[in-house]
Amino acid sequence: MIDFVRGRVIHWETEYVIVDVRDIGYQVYTPNPYSFVKNDDAVTIFTHHHVREDATLLFGFATREEQSMFRKLLEVSGIGPRVALGILAGGKPEAVAAAIQQENIAFLTKLPGIGKKTAQRMILDLKDKLDALTTGFGGAAAGLALVDMMDSGGGASEGGTAWQEAREALAALGYTAAELDRAWHVLKGTVKPDETVDALMKKALQQLFKG
């Protein structure tokens, strides 16, 4: 089992990053590859080592909480690694955990790849298994507050969670707060409620390239 890798991110795509660990390049699939772009600084990526008949894959996360939630999601019938990764791309682990404990099907069905039946299975299979996780997140109350904000269409600040993650990744690429604010001012009228972090990244970069 590979629990984490530490090294420099030397390449990234929309679904994964390549991490140079002592001259070995590990391909790591992650919810937001752009969050690991930090110039030449070494990063630690907490991983889940997934082995199947036709492939050996690494899925990676910025925090232990994301790693733990990913592994819990894999316990749900019908949820594989790709769907679990999409869930964490669409919602913070504390918000997902709180929504499960709150039996908030409306929130869960907004996550990528999750229909009503899968949301019900998530609640049935995980509701009583997330106490330790929500404690690690700082308590269920904080997670429930985040669910309430996301249900109402907002996030920690303007643009919702997807834009905030995209903004953080763009800032890591060297763009200033002023540049990102200008890009968002142009984009916000065209952004759809289900817009992904990757889609927002691409739209923002197109605007930033225009100056």
Described by the principal axes of the CA atoms, the overall outline is: globular
What does the main sheet amount to? 5 strands, mixed, barrel
> How do the helices and strands follow one another from N- to C-terminus?
EEEEEHHHHHHHHHH
Structure annotation, total helices: 10
State the strand order across the main sheet: 1-2-3-5-4
**CATH architecture identity of the largest domain:** Orthogonal Bundle
Spans of at least 5 consecutive residues whose pLDDT stays below 50 are 152-157
How far is it from the N-terminal to the C-terminal residue, by CA? 46 Å
Domain tally: 3
The quaternary structure here is single chain
CATH topology of the largest domain: DNA polymerase, domain 1
Number of strands: 5
Annotated CATH homologous superfamily of the largest domain: 5' to 3' exonuclease, C-terminal subdomain
Which percent bin holds the helix content? 40-55%
In round numbers, the mean pLDDT is 81
Structural class: alpha+beta
Strand content: 15-25%
What can you see in these coordinates?
By secondary structure, the protein is α+β, with helices and mostly antiparallel strands. It folds into three domains: about 5-60, OB fold (Dihydrolipoamide Acetyltransferase, E2P) (Beta Barrel); about 65-150, Orthogonal Bundle (DNA polymerase, domain 1), CATH 1.10.150.20; about 160-210, Helicase, Ruva Protein, domain 3, CATH 1.10.8. Helix content is about 45%, strand content about 20%. The chain has helices at about 65-75, 80-90, 95-100, 105-110, 115-125, 130-135, 140-150, 160-170, 175-185, 195-210, and strands at about 5-10, 15-20, 25-30, 40-50, 55-60. The protein has a five-stranded mixed beta barrel. Strand 4 and strand 5 (about 55-60) form a beta hairpin. The longest helix is centred in the last third of the chain and has 14 residues, at about 195-210. It is globular, with a radius of gyration of 17 Å. The N and C termini lie far apart (about 45 Å). Mean pLDDT is about 80; it is low at about 150-155. Keywords: ATP-binding, Cytoplasm, DNA damage, DNA recombination, DNA repair, DNA-binding, Helicase, Hydrolase, Nucleotide-binding. Pfam families: HHH_5, RuvA_C, RuvA_N. InterPro entries: DNA_helicase_Holl-junc_RuvA_I, Hlx-hairpin-Hlx_DNA-bd_motif, NA-bd_OB-fold, RuvA, RuvA_2-like, RuvA_C, RuvA_C_sf.
